[in-house]
Design goal:
single chain, 374 residues, alpha/beta, Rossmann fold, 7-stranded parallel β-sheet, 15 helices, 42% helix, disordered N terminus
Length: 374
Amino acid sequence: MHGTESRQAWRPLNVVVAGGGTGGHLFPGIAVAGEFIVRNANSRVLFVGAGRPFEKKALALAGYPQRTIDIEGIKGKGGWARVRAAMKTPAALLHAAGILADVKADLVVGVGGYAAGPVALAAWLKGIPMVVCEQNTVPGITNRMLFPMARRIYVSFENTRGKIDPAKMRITGNPVRPQILAAAAIGADQRDPFTVMVVGGSQGAHAINQAVMAALPLVRSSANIRFVHQTGAADQDQVAAAYLKTGIDAEVKAFFNDMASRYGQADLVVCRAGATTVAELTALGKPALLIPYPFAADNHQELNARTMVDRGAAQMVLERDLSGSGLAQCFDRFAGGPDLLADMASRSRALGKPEAARVIVDDCYQLVGNQACI
């Protein structure tokens, strides 16, 4: 019941998506927001966050409005910084309650990040249905605090940890933006030569950039390999110069706004193991070389990565073991191993849940009641 002829069967909703801060939190929220608009174009979606520059840019590109609250996280802080952050909470809660009243919110979707806390708590106090999307195998501190208050908890992984009421939990997968899913339509015959996509997140990953630069002079298959490399702003010039020096074909940018076309070109993805990245890889059936961020909270990136590695969908190198020579050997092995890549791609695709946003929105409509507007 999701074709064009049925879209008017879903009543419009006023939805507030709370949280963000990083792409890992924000992009799943954008995917869910898009699905609400697909159901009924008269639905209104407002994002409420801390107003970081990344959030503002991403939401402007996606076409969603944002309102901000003055709130700080407490994880990793001590002393006066922790006290100062706590002192902001009552005012942030009142501000959030006012926003929910202004937009006549029917539903609040928490996507993680400290800014989700006051908004989700205000929804609970006002009796507005509130749901939580948990992207990682190890939930963050804000979501752990919100689990008891949430009507539903949508998790990405079957082995998600934490005290979650089984009656509330739904294993939906992590929502992926439709424009990313569109990359699945690009066939293998359109990707020639062998293309490696290197991406370390929206800010890049210095350790990965350094290892790739060290690997380039050692790649034996350099004449038949191409790179698409998102470096982050700090390393862009240095990385571009390294490709130029070795004569290896590469598209190098600090940040790609059009990630779908880059995914579509990729035969192999070298990346971190954030939950959104893992969801995108598996939804598209992409083989990956995963290099988890070693300082992620509760080591959740390594645990995320193991969900793919254990199923043969990816290989993993810990950052402490990363080297130019080892990376060059990986590139040569994959470039010369189409059967290996095909097997990994098949296993990756089997793990994917490209319908996650649809499943979540289906369930949200059940929660708010009155599914049909006609």
